[in-house]
Fold these 2 entries.
Entry 1:
Amino acid sequence: MSDAVSPAALLDVRNMRIATGTGLPIIHDLSFTVARGEFLAIVGESGSGKTMAARALLRLLPTGLIQTHGSVALDGADISSLSEDQFRPLRGLGMGMVFQEPMVSLNPAMTVGAQMAEGLALHLKLPAAEIRTRSIVMLERVGIQDAAHCLGAYPHEFSGGMRQRIMLASVMLLKPKLLIADEPTTALDTLTQAEVLDLMVELARDNGTAIILITHNLGLVARYTQRALVLEKGHLVESGTTRELLTSPREIYTKALIAALPRRADTPPVQHAGDAVISIRNLSVTHAGALSLFRRRVPKKAVDDVSLDVYPREVVAVVGGSGSGKTTLGRALLRLIPAASGEVWFDGLDVLKAPRPAQRAFTLAAQLVFQDPYSSLDPRMNVGAIIAEPLRHVTTVASTEHARIVDEVLDDVGLAGFGTRFPHQLSGGQRQRVAIARALVRRPRFIVADEPVSALDMTIQAQILALFRSLQESYGFACLFISHDLAAIEQIADRVVVMRDGRIIEEGARDDIFDRPREDYTKALLAAAPRIEWKGATA
Amino acid sequence: MLGYILRRLLMTIPTLFLVSLAVFALVRLIPGDPVSLMFGDGGTPEQIARGRAALGLDQPVFVQFWLWLKKVATGDFGNTITDGQAVLPLVLQRFQVSASVVLVSVAMAALIGVTIGVIAAWKQDSKLDVAIISLTTIILSVPTFWLGLLLLLLFGLKLGWLPVIGYVPISENPWQAMLFLLLPVATLTLHESGVVTRMARASAIEVLRLEYITHARAKGLSEARVLARHVLPNAFAPTWTLIGLILGNLLGGIAVLETVFTLPGLGRLLVDGVFARDYPVVQGCLLFTALLYVMVNLVVDLFYPLFDPRVSAE
Amino acid sequence: MRRRINLLIGLPIVATLGALALTALVWTPYSPTATRIRGRLLPPNATHWLGTDEFGRDVLSRVMDGALVSFRVALATMLFAIIVGSLIGVVTGYLRGWTDRLIMMVNDAMLAFPGILLALAIMVILGPGQSSIVIALGLAYTPSVVRIVRGQVLSLREKEYIEASRMIGNSEVYTMARHILPNCIAPIAVLGTSMFGWAVLSESALSFLGLGVPPPAATWGNMLASARGYMETALWLSLAPGLCITLTLLGINLLGDALRDWLDPRMAAR
């Protein structure tokens, strides 16, 4: 941070314009500066152009997009007039970039060592032994155990979080003056996200590297950056210090973004009354281990002896990192995957062992809302047909009534008149509304919602969560809400269940879990969750 | 890695068994009794019965299959009906001719096709790319046997540069042999280059879109290095599988081209065997080609992890 | 843009050749099999637009009749392979379990034969003739259809809307018919188009070898085979059928590309 006060900006972007080949503008006249060692956030939702603006800095726009105007100065020197050959050395050495999807941003056919060595060999012309030493030191620095072995391994041998560390290591190895991080942790779960970002900031401080953090997550902006730009549809809406921007936003869009941050519902949690809708008793689910010739199959317990009650009109949130078994739990209790042992009681019957008619009654009374609105709707059916399909199995309603019921539900989810559209004509949020409508049309008593908003933009997430809450009140269903996102849970849950390695490790009312967590894991999850809290001084 | 190799080798066993069963069954299904064919119209019932016993045809079918399998495993593919030659040496001798044509053209087609395909992908939607795509579409539409005929007409008959009919083994006169092989190799190379180009282009386009290519560029690598080190190896994996398929299909389909250029290859042996109703020859050719195809696929799969290390981990 | 060019070139070619074949159903300028000793090997002229062959038969009439035979055989082959292969592929891919393993084992063994070789072997058993070709080529192509359709079904099964259908309470058969099959149509249509082209090519190759449609019936393949002897003296004999095969394949390939781009917008960007 010692260089942060240096007068001349490290990066000075003036009047950047980006357009498609056909002239459609993507970025309008964007100007901003980044000081030495400064951490700047570029905030925006999908379609804001934030990623393209960052890529244009490195001249890495995808084919079809062109930067039509503007100048970029790095370290006081204009770099926009450089030829491609003159510009290339700046990539990696002047400006490094960390990408969003760790699963696809490392070359699967090259060892980690070879990929890390490339930059050093090219820019610094170091001997092989020196490259190896530096790579190992850096890998150890980012927390990779057995770094020497890692050099000879291929990317697919590592988890997403590990790959993102490797990526960070390979970029920081060159000690760039500016690090562009494009949604670097969106694909990771909360705990890993915090670890990777903390590491990134540490490394940047050590080397005096400035960071441009591109993100849609205001929580990350608050936690990690000093200044922020807000982009909307290619326009710079507002800029300023992070604190100013988040505490006293001036523009409507910024305000909307901040308002969209999930916050705890002001209503007290529903007190459960009467008998449970669903009672899960000692449920276990095992995944058969990988089939191998030489090793015996090792079955893995994905859900391990879980017991849980869900009461009428109550939202129970199940929270946990990836691999915690939360999704498996939801699918097993709906009988979409077989359980190894345990009971699921519904209407006085154990639906896992009950005769077929009782199982069917359960199927008709319980529904699932899926995570990915892009794959949960049949692309060949229109919205009306998708929503009407569950009514096939409702014998008490005449088929002449179907159209009316569908219209009603469409109205309820805010999609009146959308019946004849096809899924590909809808946005992600609209699709998720359709999926919710399909789940609700039969007025189920119980719904499992599996990460229903994690694929959506912030403002859309807020809308869908609000819609879900109000529908829950008017339709009166009980809900098991599965999510890794504590912020979303805080907004919607009455009761929270924390899962880890297939087991429930903590359970309690919403306020108890969020204000008085008992388990270390829960505390770590809460600490890692990027939330905006302005209690006095911040980092 | 070792696990992958062993698993792949083990997978070959049922395939080999089913393939031999299929070849055995196919020949049993051919109408007409091989022994009566052997004797033509001249066989007495006793002779025929003795012939049947000699061939084991009086045994139950599964015993016949087992006997046949044992003989095949020791390299005894039987003898031809027409002149009593051993089938396997004949097949192997003819195979040399087919193999030299096929291997040379596929190797050249792979080199040419992958290079052009990756360049076309790199320059996607440019004039060059459109020209390459159009050219391959046309090449792929011309049947090889017609293309062969036209080339033969031009270079053999009209210009008189190359011999039209016949063949000289490479061992006898390499120069002459090359003259005879030039046109068939050129025909196949041209055609298969089209196939490989399309595949290589499609997979290179897929790879070029991936984030790790942008990452490679963001390191400051030159375009040449990005193409050579990052695009090519990854785009080559599906192309490598395709090359295996091409090899196999050519081994089966080479008969047509050998007919055009009157080459004494394996395909021609098979077709002549069919015309002569020489079933041991037909059976031998079918079995040999099928086994070869299985082996080619095996080799392709065994080398696949070199281009995509992910598969060996599954 | 390219999609439209594909369609604009491909469709007229296929339509013209198709019309030629259909015309041959009711009318050809001359009888395609009538021989005339006097008019042998006439070059193209006003009465015989494409000349005559070594038996004095009108080449245009034979090309038209050949189109009819080729297209009939190719269409039947394609329908055979697509229908049988899709049914097996959808059922085996959706049900999985031991039926799937068994079917796929046999299927993979059949795939272990190069297609044309398998067809050739079957032709040997069945003897020459149009229906034999259909069965031989159909059986040779079916395994690849099974494989592709099964792969498609397996990937569709992972889609959440299939799970949603089960959650709704739909039966397996209903889910297969309403959600899986319609979403397989696009790849099947693309496959079917290219398969038509392969069938035309394979039939010509078999006939060229003398193992396909036997003379005197005209097909492009056997016309080319007999034209081999007259390459120098009567070039038109090899040009007409060869060009016909090439144009058919070109038209079908372009049409296939256009169809693929139209049905799969993701591929169109390529």
Entry 2:
Amino acid sequence: MTPARYLALWLGLALCCGAAASDKIKVVTTTSDLRSLVEEVGKERVEAINLAPPTQDVEAYEPRPHDVQKLRDAKLVVRIGLDYDLWINKLLRDAHVDLRRGGKGYVDASIGVPLLEIRSTSFDATPGHSHGAGNPHYWLDPANAEVITGGIMEGLIRIDPAHGTTYKNNRNAFLARLKPKIEEWRRKLERYAGAPIVTYHNSWPYFARRFRLNIIDSIEPKPGIPPSPSHLAGLIRKMKEKRAAIIVVQPFESGQTPKLLAERAGALVVPLAPSVGSVPGIDDYLALIEYDVSLLAIAFEDRRRGKP
Amino acid sequence: MSDAIQFLIIAFLVAIVLTGIHAYLGIHVLSRNVVFVDLALAQISAFGATVAFMLGHLPQSTAAYGYALAFTLAGAVLLSLSRHWSGRITQEAVIGVIYVVSAAAAFLLIDKAPQGAEHIKQLLVGSILTVTRDDLVRLTALYALIAAFHWLFRKRFLLLTLDPARAKAQGLSVGWWDFLFYASFGVVVTSSVAIAGVLLVFSFLIIPAAIGMIYSDNIARTLYIGWTAGALASAAGLSASYGWDLPTGATMVCAFGLTLALAGLVRPVIMLRGNERQRLLRKALRGTLTGFCIVGLLSGAWLTINPRADHPLLDAAEAAQPEIRNYFLSAAEREVYESAVTVESKVQGESARMNELERASRWQGSDLSDDDVRRLSSYVQSFQEMRKGEQFVQREIRNKARERQRWVIGVPLVLVSLGLLLFTLK
């Protein structure tokens, strides 16, 4: 290699990297799970950030002044939808027209997902997750990641058609890793199919559907309203009757009531991670499901062997 | 059943212990006119607990309790000083500022923490149901200690509260004893709020003491009455919460409020004698009648002005006595109305069945495919829309009837009420 060529090579590389760094597509997502999936599809072409921190209840998030700035730089917005991240509507009102509903930089990840617990198209106060539009925790079914990444891919192609093939290939590579994993996870929990469990809020129906778990009830059926003594007493009776040995909670949910129920009904409180990053060390989507499935399998195994 | 009884018994015992100490402290608080002091102290201690939490100590650890206590004592110093500052502004204003600032500061800190929102909610409503037997024992011991301390120095504490000028004249160090009062008060409130929440602790503090003070000037008698009222209100609140499937803390607060209202109503009947009582009863009767007339007048006028709006009085009458409908619906209307009700309940049953089917399929039998799930969802949605349609029909029929009623019921109601009102006011 002549010195001139060598120099040219380095120059070329530098230009390439410089260009790549500067025209990375900025993507804003509402949750860390969507951010992780955007990164899977966009890889080094995108720079994604999530607005709501994964350690808190996303539905109760209050936007910060910085979020406006983040949206100003963004080319693509990806949200959960179904009233889960309603707070972003206020931010989008002042954002670029492309980022608003119907714009080419707007992705509602719930489009196309087979939704559970749809109660009505208009507002209706129903128990359970009080969203008539359907339960919003659909990312907890790993099979839904296929639809979600599909929506993300289409969004990325809309704003960056030149790299369409890259996004398609990235997504296919991700799905190729995901699908055998789903089989593996299902096998892991197969023998506990139909096992009765209790959850704190009604946040796990998609997870339960994929892994064939029987959620018999939740501790707080109406989010935000503390359970009544008759509900708790009924719950304990039901748990004893059906031998429900596991209470699934999320890290940000109150610990007292699950502890009390666990003592009275002889069950185990299992804190599962609802989102990427809600427990330290869970850095991407596959790790999230892996963590929840493994923890649950261990808990079931412990209960089966009668360990405390 | 036994589980429920166990919950309720422990919660009731906790309520008794809380009533015991808070009714006494409430007398001080009411006499000193510092009603919101418990909120301020509770919030400062919560702020301390939050600081401990952010520094890496677990909630409910000794360190967390130490921080909470230290902050509470600092708050007690501030409050005992506030008596001297409150020349141009009232002490209540200082207390309010302490409350909002410590609440906002805790909010800023906790913003970064998981369980932050849950923590703040917990502080507000508490969870008296999840108190364990050990908690109860610990709480009782602590409060007994503080009660003993107050009993020992009761003369000084009472003098300071009821007549601070004389206390000063007698050479009592007002600042020091104020501090001791607020410090012991802070310890109590910190522990109470941790289990029962701000709303309920406020009720325990103010309402039994207030009921006692309505009936008596004597401290001992005030206490007995307050304790009895607190115990009764707690029992009523807990039973209502169990019987009607309601959140316990909020139900108890409402029970306390009702007890106070009842005590206020009954007082004149018990306390007055002979002629005076009769005069009062007559006055009350006339007041009630006037009230009814005004309600009737307003309802009638509202029906005449806007027959399609909400009419609570008519709705209540209709709910209590569905046969009323027969008087103002024609036979054809009645038929449509009844079929709408039937279809509505049928559709609702059908959509509940679909939901149950989906729910069961998550773990039983062969699982539904994604398309099956979508199909089920769209059935449910259509059923819900049908249900809304049937409800719309019912509302329309009723609104049409109300438009006719505006002349038949509305105007006469106005005239009759007005006549009665003029008669009672004369």
